[in-house]
Amino acid sequence: MNVVHPHRNPHFDPFLPAVVVPEAVRVFHILKQGFDVAAESGEVLRGAAAGFEFAALIACLAVIAFFQSFTNTYGDADRLRALYQAAMAPEDVVILSIATRPDCLGPDILGLLEELNRIKPVWVELGLQTIHPESARYLRRGYDLPVFDRAVKDLKAIGVTVIVHQILGLPGETPEMMAETARYIGQSGAEGVKLHLLHVLRNTDLAAEWQAGRVQTLELEEYISILELCLRNLPPEAVIHRLTGDGAKRDLLAPLWSGDKKRVLNAIHQAFLRDNLIQGSTL
Questions:
Q1: What's phi and psi for 5, nearest 5 deg?
Q2: pLDDT digits (tens, 9 = 90+) for 95-142
Q3: How many whole angstroms separate alpha carbon 268 and alpha carbon 168?
Q4: pTM of the model
Q5: pLDDT tens for residues 26-44?
Q6: How many angstroms separate the CA atoms of 92 and 65, rounded?
Q7: Contact at 8 Å (CB) between 87 and 46?
Q8: CA geometry: angle at 162 spanning 156 and 166, to 5°?
Q9: Which residues lie below 8 Å from residue 32, measured CB to CB, with a gap of 6+?
Q10: In three state form, how does the secondary structure of the chain look?
């Protein structure tokens, strides 16, 4: 039961940051900033120990070791193997999750992921963000859509779970265009989706565009409306791992409402109830 409606999902937790949790296990993402692949194995283990200590405080039943920041398959396969194995070795770690780019999954990396997936389940998160070429160029994403398609196909072939990221509110995109991206992700074979809000951080090119008035960000109600549209275009079996995202408050320029996560989550939950949201209802 991977629907979004809080009253229809027994594992919905309004205090978790925008996660609809798979039924099989209650999990906690340790190391919010991820494991940096430049770290040595000992550093990974020290970081993991801190994560386990916090997980114990909130009585987690299981833990996901999450390599979150940067491109975590960009490196020598043998070195990555040591880092991944160190992170997934503790008994309480039930899943290894790796965020990366679709164009950084060569044969040696795929072979490594297949090997690790035989030990414990492996998830790979891909930053697609949009299917629309103009938006992809604006983002300087650096790869075309067929590269994403190939990556999903290759990962599915080795039995790895695929989670895809989408940004809502990209300049020039209409709600219908964002729904098209969501629908494409749902049809791609990916098992999970993370939906993010476009936000402007200081000292970035986007900040300069925003300050010049060439880029506008979404208001909260606009975001929720688009979010609901996308969810209605995602298949009911897709696991929704994230419903919004926010940047570091010290760097956040816009939209400022995104910095109040409790308010945002409450507004999302109330809208889902008000609108009787059913995931996949327009498919």
A1: -60, 120
A2: 999 999 999 999 999 999 999 999 999 999 999 999 999 999 999 999
A3: 15
A4: 0.82
A5: 333 333 333 443 344 444 4
A6: 10
A7: no
A8: 135
A9: 68
A10: CCCCCHHHCCCCCCCCCCCCCCCCCCEEEECCCCCCCCCCHHHHHHHHHHHHHHHHHCCCCEEEEEECCCCCCCCCHHHHHHHHHHHHCCCCEEEEEEEECCCCCCHHHHHHHHHHHCCCCEEEEEEEECCCHHHHHHHCCCCCHHHHHHHHHHHHHCCCEEEEEEEECCCCCCHHHHHHHHHHHHHCCCCEEEEEECCEECCCHHHHHHHCCCCCCCCHHHHHHHHHHHHHCCCCCCEEEECCCCCCCCCEEECHHHHCHHHHHHHHHHHHHHCCCCCCCCC
- Is the peptide bond between 255 and the residue preceding it cis, with omega within 30 degrees of 0? yes
Structure tokens at 184: 């494409």
Side chain identity at residue 224, one-letter code: I
